[in-house]
Automatic annotation (TrEMBL):
Residues 6-144 form the Endoribonuclease L-PSP/chorismate mutase-like domain. InterPro entries: Endoribo_LPSP/chorism_mut-like, RutC-like_sf. It comes from Paracraurococcus ruber. This is Endoribonuclease L-PSP/chorismate mutase-like domain-containing protein. It comes from the Bacteria. Pfam families: YjgF_endoribonc (PF14588). Signal peptide: none annotated.
Length: 155
């Protein structure tokens, strides 16, 4: 029987992908006590980067938000692996860190990152409300438009 979070994913029309394998010398997540820290996730879909380029210079705000949302979906896939397949173990989304590839004059990073934050709250309810840092960067791995990392409390 599917748990509460799996049911919410289905309601939102989200199918979690297989967790992405690391592409360098790091691991996808670490667990210390009740904390799960997930490495940055890019907007991978079916093994390919779905959103490339710079937000505000070829990538629209809407696509930037969709990229951030997809990054959060990929974070959840990693958290599911960390929880042995049981997303109902997630007690809280503690923190998200967003990296937005953008030109120097772009200032709407927070609006882009809301794509991830809004999904965190939609999926986990009040437990999805989190602390957050969002910064602009000149480039990201594979020319990804967005990357999101996260910290979760599990039980």
């Amino acid at each position: 029987m599917a748990g509460r979070i799996e049911a919410k994913l289905a309601e939102l029309g989200i199918v979690l992908p297989a967790p992405a394998a690391p592409v360098a010398n790091y691991i996808p997540f670490t667990i210390s006590g009740s904390l799960v820290v997930v490495s940055g996730q890019i907007p991978l879909k079916e093994g390919r980067i779905a959103y490339t380029g710079k937000v505000g210079a070829g990538v629209s705000m809407e696509d930037g938000q969709a990229a951030a949302r997809l990054c959060f979906v990929n974070l959840v896939a990693q958290v599911k692996a960390a929880c042995g397949g049981d997303l109902d173990r997630v007690r809280r989304v503690l923190r998200l860190g967003g990296f937005i590839a953008a030109p120097p004059d772009f200032t709407q990073h927070a609006v882009v990152m809301n794509g991830a934050s809004d999904l965190a709250v939609a999926l986990f309810g009040d437990a999805g409300r989190h602390a957050r840092t969002t910064i602009g960067v000149p480039s990201l791995p594979g020319d990804a438009a967005v990357e999101v990392e996260g910290m979760f409390e599990i039980g």
